[in-house]
Predict the structure.
Amino acid sequence: MRARHAAYVTSAAAPARFPPEDRPEIAFTGRSNVGKSSLLNALVGVKGLARTSGTPGRTQLLHWFAVDPPKGPPLHFVDFPGYGYAKVPKSMRDAFGPLVDGYLQTRASLRLVIVIIDVRRGAEEDEVLFLQWLAQHDRATQVVLTKADKIPKSKRIPAAHAVQRALALPRAPILFSATTGDGSDDLWRVIGNSV
Ligand code: GTP
Ligand code: MG
């Protein structure tokens, strides 16, 4: 499955610049360079829609896309900057933390926060803390393990179970690959159920 239509809307570094809350929103979050933008592009089926890069932490704005999903009402997908910016100076981290926190706490149209983790890295303290924080703010979440193509097939399900245990998730996370498109149908189903 892929989107029927997808188009860039706007980018914002301040709440005053956020677009109107006229569609249910899905946020794509995760550590820097984990593959957030690639996952978004693979899911909608449009190469280069969200900008990808080999330079971690370079996406420092929130980016909105208008997406008509395979089924259901029109949505906004929101591409996030990465957290855990090891290579970004602290001054820069402090400057965009409040933007992301503020969005996640107050955005009324936000329906689902997709938390993306590199399958090779698994869940670390950042993910534990981020998911706890989202739960405290009553946000629905879906954990996705991406870059699944980078590990052998036989190791994928065990990796998913390890992350499920580490994060005490009710269900196993979705295994995804932006390279092969694996996991897209599962993720579309979860998105469809969340709006
Ligand atoms: P920031 O916005 O900078 O935090 O990065 P991001 O999380 O949006 O990651 P991005 O999509 O830019 O991808 C980072 C790198 O990982 C790029 O070189 C991608 O080509 C690569 N990549 C992303 N997803 C996959 C995947 O599923 N499989 C493989 N093999 N490579 C991937
Ligand atoms: Mg990105």
User: Anything to note?
Assistant: The longest strand covers residues 110-118.
